[in-house]
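[Discussion] Sanity-checking designs against the backbone

I'm trying to build intuition for which residues belong where. Below is a structure token string of 109 positions. I'd appreciate it if someone posts a full sequence so I can compare it with mine line by line.
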């Protein structure tokens, strides 16, 4: 897959940047695990404030990764980007593989 300069490259870089924040990645992981969840529950599970969670969830929504639904005064988020969970699985598997290689190299030295 070769990306030359232009809109596709810019959009791809924006998507990776969106997922490059540890807090957003944690919230996304929680949503993949739990399914649709309220902001308050996500904030509590992530150990962050509701305001902080809301800001990150808003960015993921604007980026097309999440969808939201309001019920009374609660807002619920869900993953709407169908490929995102698989992308996270691929990257996590790669990181785990790299960690094992580094661990093996370190113990052999």
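Best answer:
Here's mine. Compare freely.
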């Amino acid at each position: 897959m070769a990306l030359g300069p232009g809109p596709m490259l810019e959009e791809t870089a924006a998507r990776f940047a969106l997922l490059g924040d540890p807090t957003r990645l944690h919230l996304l992981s929680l949503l993949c695990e739990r399914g649709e969840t309220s902001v308050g529950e996500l904030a509590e599970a992530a150990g962050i404030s509701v305001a902080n969670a809301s800001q990150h969830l808003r960015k993921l929504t604007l980026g097309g990764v999440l969808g939201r639904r309001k019920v009374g005064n609660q807002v619920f988020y869900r993953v709407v980007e169908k490929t995102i969970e698989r992308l996270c699985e691929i990257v996590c598997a790669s990181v785990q593989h790299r960690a094992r290689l580094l661990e093996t190299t370190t113990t052999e030295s």
